[in-house]
Amino acid sequence: MIPPGFLMSRRQSLAVGAAGVAGSALPPLTTPVSAAPSNESVSSYGGKAKTVLIVHLSGGLSQLDSLDMKPQAAAEIRGEFNPIDTATPGIQVCEHLPKLAQQMDRWSILRTIAHPEHNHLLATHVALTGRATPVPRGSASDLDRVESRYDFPNLAAALDFVRPRNDGIPTGVSLPNYFIEGPLTWPGQHAGFLGAKHDPWQINQDPNDPNFRIDSLNLQPGVTAPRLSTRRQLLDQLNRNLAPQGRLQSFKEQQEVAFSLLTSAKVAEAFQIEREEAAVRDRYGRNKFGQSLLLSRRLVQAGVPIVQAAMGIVQTWDTHVDNWGALKNRLLPQLDTGLAALMDDLANTGLLEQTLVVVMGEFGRTPKISNLPGQALPGRDHWAWAYSALFSGAGIRGGQAIGQTDAVAAYPVSRSWSPADVLTTLFDGLGVSHEAMVIDPLGRPNHLLNGDVIDPLYTGRSV
């Protein structure tokens, strides 16, 4: 079997022949090749982004109550909110997103994202990797849909494999929580079959907590930088006597990552959010949402290529019950305030020109309002056939709404775009070659860019 995770270009895959016999011709996994020769095909939009910031709305934002409102629909469809005009004539958003409305010239709304997965776990893997989960699903239980090392790598993990770093700055940081609920761990959050070495660095603390501190980035009392260097040399000598395989090799790789982080002052300083002026912290909102976006901005400034800010724990935006109360009183105002401060800071520092920002969940919500059994407050259920996302920065054209859905925001009536297209657009924005491939555990070559670049985000010409 071909070792999972080996990277090669399309040209190289043709040279070694079919996947079933390619193993004998491939070099070992320990010496991965570059993504592709520099003269191979790359989109004309590629390379403008140095960082991608993913603001993930776990549970699924209701498109009808935010970015794709249908005020002319029947009462059982349109909901309780009213649309407001934005800074861009002809585009309206929810009344509880007034700051977004004022900044519409910086944002592009994509209203026709669609895919077939209506289960949180499966849809999250699709949203974060651009792929369906590879493990066969045997039962109706969510317990066979959980995260595994057979998953496809997410954006940060794949980029780390394509462009490994040795400067002490992690390729990916996810915060402020992992998506776990009881026995269920949402798939698509780590490097999958590429191995733990390429997992994004995970922060599981609230940046709004006065005691927020990342202990793993601080040396223990009495341990100086020279002493740490001496310890590393000793550890390297001990590791030379160990066979570089299996769990020992994985542990060694994690040690190397830990040493790099400990010796990176830029990363350590980025997490010192208490250094921000009180007025700046207030602008983002003194809550977990807002302070996570502020911390994300600091990580962007530190040079972290992929930052994922989770706007809540799993199913935070899963508004089966009290959809309008949850959105009006907490979710939309906190998101609106945090995003406005983030965009102001990125724009004022020039970072928006090189930071591609995307705001989306794993799916949207049903057009029809419903009540769960035993619940008095109505809501909306899961819906992946049409939902909306926001894009900005790094060449994205602001002040536009791309795509059109039907009269109840149920299905696209113009071209639909998939999460694979979204991930392809992000890879392309980072300048990753369209020829880049990884080999999965079954020996099959997979293009990292497995969709289409969403050209209208850059051109303004909808398809």
Strand and helix map with partners:
Layout (H helix, E strand, L loop, with lengths): L6 E2 L1 H7 L34 E7 L17 H4 L4 E3 L6 E3 L3 H5 L5 E6 L6 H10 L25 H8 L9 E4 L4 E2 L2 E2 L15 E2 L22 H15 L6 H17 L2 H6 L7 H7 L3 H15 L3 E5 L12 H26 L6 E7 L2 E2 L16 E2 L3 E6 L7 E3 L16 H11 L7 E3 L5 E3 L8 H4 L4
Parallel strand pairs: 2-10, 2-11, 5-15, 6-9, 6-10
Antiparallel strand pairs: 1-16, 3-4, 5-14, 7-8, 11-14, 12-13, 16-17
Helix pairs in contact: 4-12, 10-11
Account of the 3D structure:
The protein is an alpha/beta fold. The chain has 2 domains: 46-214 and 276-432, Alkaline Phosphatase, subunit A, CATH 3.40.720.10; 215-270, no CATH class. The chain has 13 helices and 17 strands. The protein has helices at 10-16, 75-78, 98-102, 120-129, 155-162, 225-239, 246-262, 265-270, 278-284, 288-302, 323-348, 419-429, 456-459, and strands spanning 7-8, 51-57, 83-85, 92-94, 108-113, 172-175, 180-181, 184-185, 201-202, 306-310, 355-361, 364-365, 382-383, 387-392, 400-402, 437-439, 445-447. The strands form 5 sheets. An 8-stranded mixed beta sheet has the order 9-6-10-2-11-14-5-15, with helices on both faces. Strands 1-16-17 form a 3-stranded antiparallel beta sheet. Strands 3-4 form a two-stranded antiparallel sheet. Strand 16 (437-439) and strand 17 (445-447) form a beta hairpin. The relative contact order is 0.22. Residues 1-42 have low confidence and may be disordered.
